[in-house]
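It is worth pausing here to work through a concrete case rather than discussing structure prediction in the abstract. The textbook approach is simple: state the sequence, then state the predicted structure, then interpret. We follow exactly that order.
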Amino acid sequence: MELDLRAALIAWLRATPAPLDALNAIEEEAPPRAAPPWLGIAASASADWSTKDRQGREVRVAVELTTRGDDPAADGALVRALGQRIEALPRDHPQFEVASILFLRARAERRERNVRSMLLEYRFRLLERP
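Step two, the predicted structure:
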């Protein structure tokens, strides 16, 4: 279910409205040749979250938003839009149902040449389709 969630999340984010449509790339990992701003899944991990009658997974997904600029507050609208879009992921998918989505934590850092990175981690609880 973890890989199915990753694929669904990437497709959902790629079909996104402004301001996220201004991203140069939305990929499953850091894109090798995209200039900032871009978004990638940095990591994911899953654990059992099954019930008596259905298989389930708790999947933690960290997405990395990379931008460029001098002002740390400049990406605020972009980060808020990203969080809203992730939390609005449709609940019904062919392989699984999303029982819940929860924001866990964020981390921001400034890198060389005014590159900024924001890591957002979410928890998804999924149940396999019967």
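Step three, interpretation. Residues 2-14 form the longest helix (13 residues). The chain has one domain: 2-128.
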